[in-house]
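call fold(seq) -> tokens
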Amino acid sequence: MRRKTSAPDWPGEIHRVLMSQRVRQVSYVPDAGHKRLIELCQADKGMVAVPLTTEEEGIGLAAGAWLGGERAALLMQSSGVGNCVNALTLAANCGFPLLMIVTLRGEWGEFNPGRSPWAKRRRRCCA
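ret:
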């Protein structure tokens, strides 16, 4: 008989790691995959949770946080990575750390059917 195990609390674990590493700014484009982590960051009085309209804004915020002596993280969907390719050169050229936590589109009961075939192909070719 198999014992029923509870699902891992990855949002809680990531939040604990962010706190332990003194990350004080977390920016995000609203995302169901990051919902719980966003809520934890919003509730944390030691963090500033900043909603974004585009992922590129988060890269600029992370640069500003670093220049101001703070640590930042950027939460986004995998589809958002492509949206900020040009802005990513800022981190590479200026040499500041950029922590991005990315959820995969096409997973976790994706509502957009156009994303699911991509995820299935990715699992088939990259597993």
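The helical segments are 10-20, 35-43, 55-67, 78-83, 85-94, 116-126.
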